[in-house]
Design goal:
Layout (H helix, E strand, L loop, with lengths): L9 H11 L2 E4 H8 L15 H13 L6 E12 L2 E13 L8 E9 L8 H21 L7 E10 L4 E10 H35 L11 H14 L1 E6 L6 H15 L4 E5 L3 H15 L7 E3 L3 H4 L21 H12 L4 E2 L1 H11 L3 H7 L6 E4 L2 H4 L15 E5 L5 H8 L2 E4 H10 L5 H32 L9 E5 L8 H19 L9 H16 L4 E9 L7 E10 L3 H8 L4 E6 L5 H8 L7 E3 L9 E6 L9 H18 L4 E5 L2 H14 L5 E3 L6 H9 L8 E5 L17 E5 L8 H12 L4 H18 L10 E6 L6 H4 L8 E3 L3 H13 L2
Parallel strand pairs: 1-3, 4-5, 7-17, 7-18, 8-11, 8-12, 9-10, 9-11, 12-17, 19-24, 19-25, 20-22, 20-23, 21-22, 23-24
Antiparallel strand pairs: 2-3, 3-4, 5-6, 13-16, 14-15, 15-16
Helix pairs in contact: 1-5, 2-4, 2-5, 4-5, 5-7, 6-7, 10-11, 11-12, 15-16, 16-17, 17-18, 21-22, 21-27, 24-25
């Protein structure tokens, strides 16, 4: 070797040492990375369930002949391209060589809903690849010679027919070695590139300095607590008021932990698009300081899919052309995207367009190879959307949950499901000409829904007749709510399983159901999945409606499987992570937050003060207004006067937040009649993204806009109105959720646990909305503005005890007092 090649730099030496460390990988992981080919096969329904697969495996394994072994464990160490690789896996059934005339045989069991010849060739090839590598590992373990024969048998078990289709092939061990080494070479080459990137991330993270000249008040405390949690593991809950800089205060210590500890990946969850934008801006500033971190930003399928965006059209078989040959074109795309600093939806889309790949699926393929993944809550907590690579326990991950006050309600929604008769009938109609077997199955589901409602009605009539002998009058609509221990709609669940089985058969046979019912099938699969996971915190709510004639049959039925508390499911998700940090500006009171988020009582709770001066915000409580539902008509005039006084005290941009659209419209009409000279913009129910953007355009510096919006909606959370974008907010009412079956069930379930049900179901969630809304006004050190709390209940000790420490409320008993207080605030600097 020439002299100039004998020495390695310090970084190169460390990297070389890291490369020599053995790779540990399962056969399944190797196959998934290096052996996939051809088309991207739809997995909307999820295929046979894990329970069905386990039962089929156990059934066939019990039938194995004497002398064979089930779940035979394999682990071999092999050198590939100067890299040590430890490869492991479990063979479903091993038949050791019994005599010289019969070779050793390895069996792999795969469950299907169709005969194996109807499976897509890419699916069959992938399963055979797994079995071939098992054969290679066994031969290496037993020191087979190159010409030693190995028998491999695929046992395709058809769940519909309850029949097994064996498929036997014989290979020489040399053939299996050649196949396996090709896969290993591909993975090892990728692994070296990946390790080089990880090394660059570690070095740059270690050298990274805090990007700002100084820490804001409370910011360093949050960053230090976050780093300790990232280093040591566990949970941390942090209530950090607006302005502290929660994003950089959690991301910076996470990056440092990646450089200084064994942390491999960070998952950053945010419920709002604006939250993803803040993370993008923050990481960009760190990249400018030399950080080599790779950031992947996931976007929802409907906003990413090329078909949904009209960028491609399905072929005559109803298949997206970007899924044809997807895995054949994937490797160069993966190579191009590895180690790029920002993998935004736009960057992913560009690469997907270049190679004609599905952009959403391409983003999912990059999940294991990004250092920081920014996405919605559902990618971690939703059982049907959760990222599969989180199950890889060899990697150490951290979870950062922004706007964590939203997690409890969001998680309850993820573990709830709904099924309606009308949607099911429409789905059946869509299948009439193209998929008759699926149509018949859906019609059976409709009949099961009808039968379930009849049974509930008969049960109620039976109970009523025992207590009230007179004939009950048929109602136009009825409601049944289950209690723990009540009978569940088994016939409906059985019918759902039948529909999904037929749909699976169609998918496996590459004859997908009509695209028009894709969303309905996803919803049906969710209902089935949640029903299988349901526990004591779930209730069945059945609603039925008649037409205008109360004597007619039910024309609409709806079954909702409602989750009242998702804490147990959140706990299961936390276990996938080395640590979890949950933070928001509004996480109070602690006992309520911990109960909703599934946290142990001993998890650290950090409550930080505001970094801003209290004098920056004028907080005025107006108890002379009663905004309760029955008093709203009488409150309208006082509210109109209050809004006008506030606006005229210092013209600028103001937002008024209401508890409902009806109340908003009522006050808006009256305000427009009395003050037509003041331009008014209103949030519309079900507004599109374009409508939301036009609303926000009104709130720019230099404008004098008055906006009416809904408390807890898009304009009341997650948006930074900096400086003159917003100089004041009026919060109308205490933000209590509307009284309905769901909230009342939450109330009664909490009361049954010995808690204050009204607080849990109404007052605490309402308080969170109020605090979030009030937090829109002061966003930086130079901001100055006012917050008006309009309702007599804000003077109640319950609310006052939960006000943030930096609040300095001033009570205004009438309009004149409020006007004088506002004048004094704006004149005082």
């Amino acid at each position: 070797m020439s002299a100039h090649k004998t020495a390695l730099s310090g970084d190169e030496a460390v990297l070389s040492e890291e490369m020599r460390d053995g790779i540990q990988i399962s056969v399944g992981e190797l196959v998934a990375f290096a052996c996939r080919s051809s088309d991207l096969v739809s997995n909307v329904s999820g295929g046979p369930t894990a329970l069905e697969g386990i039962r089929a495996h156990q059934k066939l394994q019990k039938k194995r002949p004497a002398g064979s072994e089930a779940e035979y464990y394999l682990q071999v160490e092999i050198e590939q391209d100067a890299q040590s690789v430890v490869l492991s896996g479990r063979v479903d059934i091993l038949h050791p060589q019994s005599d010289l005339h019969r070779p050793v045989q390895l069996d792999e069991i795969k469950t299907t809903y169709v005969p194996p010849h109807k499976l897509p060739e890419s699916t069959r090839a992938l399963h055979w690849a797994q079995l071939k590598i098992y054969g290679f590992c066994y031969g290496l373990q037993q020191q087979f010679s190159a010409d030693t024969p190995v028998a491999l048998q695929m046992l395709w078990h058809n769940l519909k027919e309850k029949k097994t289709y064996p498929e036997l092939q014989e290979f020489s061990w040399r053939e299996l070695e050649q196949f396996s080494r090709e896969a290993l070479a591909q993975y090892v080459q990728w692994h070296h590139r990946w390790q080089a990137h990880k090394h660059a991330v570690r070095v740059s993270a270690q050298a990274l300095e805090f990007p700002f000249g100084r820490y804001r008040d409370g910011q360093r405390e949050l960053a230090v607590a976050a780093y300790r949690c990232l280093r040591d593991g566990g949970k941390l809950v942090a209530e950090a008021p607006t302005g502290i800089g929660k994003t950089i205060s959690t991301l910076f210590p996470a990056v440092k932990a990646m450089g200084e500890t064994g942390l491999d990946q960070v998952i950053y969850l945010t419920a709002k698009n604006s939250g993803r934008q803040v993370v993008r801006e923050t990481t960009t500033s760190l990249h400018e300081l030399g950080l080599r971190l790779s950031v992947l930003e996931l976007q929802a399928r409907d906003k990413t899919c090329a078909c949904s965006l009209g960028l491609c059209s399905r072929d005559e078989d109803g298949i997206c052309p970007r899924t044809r040959g997807f895995y054949d074109r994937l490797p160069p795309a993966r190579q191009a995207l590895l180690a790029q600093p920002l993998l935004t939806p736009e960057i992913i889309a560009q690469e997907a367009d270049r190679l004609q790949l599905c952009p959403f699926e391409l983003s999912l393929q990059m999940l294991p190879w990004a250092d920081l993944v920014v996405c919605d809550f559902n990618y971690v907590f939703d059982p049907l959307v959760q990222m599969h690579n989180l199950r890889d326990t060899l990697r150490q991950r951290a979870l950062l949950v922004d706007e964590a006050h939203n997690l409890g309600d969001r998680a309850r929604g993820m573990y709830s499901a709904k099924l309606t008769r009308s949607d099911s009938r429409r789905a059946a109609a869509e299948c009439k000409s193209s998929h008759p077997s699926l149509r018949r199955a859906i019609q059976s589901l409709v009949r099961a829904l009808d039968k379930w409602v009849v049974e509930l009605r008969e049960l109620r009539e039976s109970r009523t007749s025992q207590n009230h002998p007179t004939e009950p009058v048929p109602a136009k609509s009825e409601l049944w709510i289950s209690q723990p221990g009540d009978e569940t709609p088994q016939a409906v669940n059985t019918a759902i399983q039948k529909v999904l089985t037929v749909a699976n058969q169609l998918w496996e046979a590459a004859q997908p159901p009509p695209d028009a019912i894709a969303d309905w099938l996803k919803n049906l699969f969710r209902f089935q999945a949640i029903e299988q996971l349901a526990g004591e915190e779930h209730r069945y709510i059945t609603r039925a409606q008649r037409s205008s004639n109360p004597e007619s049959r039910w024309h609409e039925q709806e079954i909702e499987l409602l989750c009242l508390n998702a804490a147990e499911y959140l706990q299961q998700a936390y276990r996938l992570f080395h640590c979890a940090i949950l933070f928001s500006a509004t996480l109070r009171p602690a006992h309520f937050v911990y109960r909703q988020l599934g946290l142990q009582a001993d998890s650290p709770y950090l409550q930080l003060p505001s970094p801003f001066h209290p004098e920056q915000m004028g907080l005025f409580v107006c108890p002379y207004v009663d905004t309760r539902y029955r008093a709203r008509q009488g409150a309208t005039s006082a509210l109109v006067d209050m809004i006008a006084r506030t606006f005229h005290s210092r013209p600028g941009n103001y937002l008024v937040f209401f508890p409902s659209y009806r109340f908003l419209q009522q006050v808006a009409k009256s305000f427009a009649e009395r003050f037509p000279e003041i331009a008014l913009v209103q949030q519309e129910s079900g507004s599109s993204e374009q409508q939301r953007a036009r609303f926000l355009e009104c709130f720019q510096p230099g404008r004098e806009s008055l906006g009416f919006a809904i408390m807890g909606g898009i304009f009341g959370e997650g948006i930074d109105y900096v400086g003159e974008q917003l100089v004041g907010t009026i919060v109308v009412g205490t933000g209590l959720p509307q009284v309905n079956e769901e909230q009342e069930l939450l109330r009664s379930a909490s009361a049954a646990r010995g808690e204050n049900g009204f607080d849990i179901a109404y007052r605490y969630p309402g308080l969170t909305r109020v605090l979030q809304t009030a937090g829109r006004v002061i966003r930086s050190e130079s901001d100055r503005g006012v917050v008006i709390l309009a309702d007599y209940r804000f003077t109640d000790p319950f609310y006052r005890s939960l006000y943030p420490q930096h609040w300095q409320p001033r009570i205004c008993d009438n309009g004149e007092t409020l006007g004088a207080a506002l004048k004094q605030f704006w004149e005082t600097r």
